[in-house]
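Internal QA ticket QA-208
Title: Verify multi-chain structure generation after dependency bump
Assignee: T.L.

Test input:
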Amino acid sequence: MRTATRRKFWRTVQTLIIVIAAAVMIVPIVWIFMAAFKSHVDVYQLKLLFKPTLANFAAVFAEPYKLGDKLINSTIVATVTVVIAIPVATLASYSFSRFRLRGETTMLVMILATQFVPAVVIVLPFFVMFRDVGLLDTRTGLVLVNLAIVMPFAIWMIKGFIDGIPIDTEEAALVDGSTRMQVIRNIVLPMAAPGLITSGIFCFIIAWNEFLFALIITNKDAVTLPIGLALFKAEEGDLWNLLSAAGIIIMLPMFVLALIIRKHFVQGMTMGAVR
Amino acid sequence: MASIRLKNITKRWGDFVAVDNQSLDIEDQEFLVLLGPSGCGKTTTMRMIAGLEEPTEGEVWIGDRMVNDELPKDRDVAMVFQNYGLYPHMSVFDNIAYPLKIRKSAPKARIPELVRKAADRVELLQFLERRPRELSGGQRQRVALARAIVREPQAFLMDEPLSNLDAKLRVTMRAELKHLSHELQITTVYVTHDQIEAMTLADRIGVMNDGRIRQLGTPDEIYNDPANIFVADFIGSPSMNLIQGAVDRNCFVTAGGQQLTETPASDLDRAVLGVRAEDIAVVRLGSTDVDARVYAAENTGENVVLTLQLGEQRITCKEDRYLKFSINERIGLRFDSSKTYLFEPDSGARIRQ
Amino acid sequence: MRDNTLKYLLVMPAVVIVFATAIWPLIQSFRYSLFQGRLTRPGFPQGYIGFENYTWAVSQEPAFWNSVIVTGVYTLLTVALTVLLSLGLALLLVPGGRFRMSIQTILILPFAMSPALIGVSFRFMFNPEFGLFDAFFGLLIPPLADISWLSDPILAFAVCVMADVWGWIPFLTLVLIGGLAAVPSETIEAAQVDGAGGWQVFRDITLPQLAPVLAVVIILKSIFSLKTFDQVYMLTNGGPGTATQTLSHYVYFNGLKYGQLGYAASVAWLMVIPMIFLTYAYAKLVFRKAQQ
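Actual output:
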C-alpha cells in the first residue's frame, strides 16, 4: 500500500518536472510569437490579453527595414548552397562508403575537422580575398563561405545514410548489367532519397541560420535575415514588436523543416557517432 | 551457356589469403556446389567469377573468354544473393525486367512477355505489381530467382540463396531449385555451408577450407570416399568419429590398447580411424574385443544416438530406436572394416592401401 | 570506366570544395598570423614579424587573457549544465508514451532556432522592465527584481550561459534519449532482479553503457562552446566592458573592427589548438564506432 502511494507521488513529481522543463523551452518562443502580434504599447507590459495586429509584419517589410530583401537573400543563398553541396557530397559519400581509397581515413578526418574549426579563423582570409576580387557583400561570396560549413556536414551525414543501404542490391544491379554510374542513378539515389532530403533540409537550416560570415562579409545588398535583426536596434532602444515579427519570419520556416526531418534530426547532428 | 574455368586464382587482402592458388573446371550445364564453413573462401571464389572481386593472381575464364578485365555487367552471368538484393523501390515486375532493360538485350515490346514467363516459372504471376517489402521471405527469394532466369545468362551464381529462409520453407525451395535447374540446364555455381543442400542439389561438390578446395567430387564420392580428415569431419551429421590410435600388425589399436578393427595398412605409430556413427554396431559385451561404456543415450525419435566412452575418447553411434540403454552400462562394439577410413594424423590425408 | 579510377573522380569535387573553402583559408590564416597585417594599409599582408603576434597576445594583452578566461569558464559552465540537465531530462523522457513523445517533438523546435535569434530572445526575456524571465526571477528572488541584468558583468555572463544552455538542452536531450534507448533492457532487468534499486541501476548499468555517447556529447558541446559567437554578439556584444567577450568575439573585434588582421589571425590560431585535441578525441570515437 505504502509503496503504491510513494510510486504515485514520484510519478506526479516526474510529470511536474517534465511540464516545467517543457514550459521553460517553449514559453520564450510563445512569448515572441505573442509580441509579434502586439502593438508597440502592449509589448512594454507583461500582458497576456491584447488586441492582435498585423501591423508589425507590414512594418518590417516596408521602408526602411525592407525585410523582404533579406528574405530573398537568405532563400537564394541557402538554396544555392544546398543545390551545390548535396550532389557533390553524395558522389563523395558514395565513394567513401563503398570503396577503399588511398588516404581515405585522412580525408575523412580532415573533412570532419574542418567542421570544428572556429569560423573566425577561416573568415579572415575570405574577407581579404573577397575584398580584392569584389565579392564582398554578394550572394555568391556568401554561398562560397556557407559551403565551408555545410560540406563536411553533408558528406558525413550522407555517408551515414549510404552506409545503411545493403550492398547486395548494388551488386545485383552490377551483375544484372549496370555500369557504376547507372547503379548510382537507378539504385543508390532512389534508395538514399529520404536521407538526401534530410541532409538537404539540414544544410538548408544551417545556411539559413548562419550568422558570423554574413555579419562580416555583407553590409547592404546581400544581408541575410539573421543579420537583419540588428536593424531593429534603434537609438531609442530595441523595437521588440518588430524584432519579434522578424524573428518569426526567421524561425517559422525552420520549425516546419525541422519537424519534417524530425526522425533523423539527432542522427544527422552527430554524424553517425551516436546511433 | 558456358563452362567456367579458374586458373590458379588467389585472392589476398593484405596478409589474409582468402583463396589460395585454386584451379577449378566447371563444365557446361553442370551444377557445382562450393561447400565449406564460413570464411573458407567459397563466396570470394564466386564473387571473382561474377567480377565483384578482382583476383590478386590467376585467370577467370567463362566459355572461351578470359574475363579478368571485364566488368560484372559484361560477363553475362546472373547472381542470386543471400539477402536477395532486390530493388526495394521497384515493383516485382520492374525488378525482374531490370536486367532486360539495362542490357537492352530484348526488344522493348517483348519485355512484358519475358517477365511474365519468368514470373510464371517461380509462381509469382499474381504478385507482379507488389513491392518487395510486401512479400514474404520465400516470395522475395523467388523474385531474385526470376530476375536471374529472365534472361539466358552464361551461368547462374547463387550465394547461400536459401539460408535466410526458415527451415520448412528451405526444404520446399530446395526442391523447386532442383526442378528449375533441371529444366533450364544452365551452368550453376552454388555456394552454401549447408551439407544437405550440397548433397541434394549438386552434380559435383567442392568442399572448401582455408581458401582451398579440399575435395572435388560427386556427392556420393564426398560422403563415401572422403579424401582427408577435413572432408570426413565436415560432411555427415553427426560428424564422423575420428579415433586416435596406431596400426599394429594389420589391426587398428586405440591409445588405450583396444583392438577396434582390421585394416590392410602397414604398421603405423600414429593413425586416425574415421567411422560414421551409423556404421558402428552395438553387440553383447565380450563378443568382440571392444568394450565401451554408455556416457549418454539420446532418443531422437528416429533412432537412438549414443555417446560412448571408449578409453580416453568419446564417440557417437546411431542405433535402432527400440533399443534401450542405461547410462554407465558397458557394451561391446563391432566395426565394419569396409566402412572405416584411415587418416594420417598430421597432414589429415587419407591412407589408402 | 573502372571503379579504381571512378572512385577518385567521385570524391574530387567534394575534396576540392573542402580544400578551397576550409583548408586553404586555414593555412592562409596562419600565414597572416606571421605578419603585422594591418587591413587598412595597402599591400596586405605586410610586415613579416614571425611569431611576434603570438608572443604579444600571450605576454602583453590582458584583454586576450580576459577572453581566454571568459571562454574557459563559459565552456565549463555550459558543458556541465547542459549535459547534466539534458541527462536528467532524457532519463525522465525515455520511458516513452504519448505525453513524453509529444514533449520530445517540442524539443526539436528550439534547436532549429538561429543562435543569433536566441541571443535576441534572451535580451528580450531579461529586459528589466517587461522581460518575462526577469519578472519570473524577480518573483522568486526579490532582490533581482528590476535589476538591469545585462549591465552587470556577472549577471550578463549568467544570462549568456543561460541562453546557451537553453539552446542546447533540446538537442543533447534527444541524443541522450537515443543513447538510453540503446541500453538493452535485459541488462537493466537483470540488475533489478539481482536486487539493485533505481539509483544503483543507473550508476552501475545505465551510466557505464551510456559512457561512449556521453563522451561524444561532451566533446561536441565543448567544441561548440569554445567557438561561441552569435548569441553573445546579439545578447551583450561582449559587454558590459569585456565581461562576456569570448575568444571568437575578441578575434572579430580585433580583426574586423580594428583592422589588426595579423594579430587577430594569431589569436584565432591559438583557438585552433584545443580544437585539435577535441577533434582528435572525437574522430577516435567516431571511427571506433564505425569499425564495429
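Spot checks passed. The radius of gyration of chain A is 24 Å.
Status: verified.
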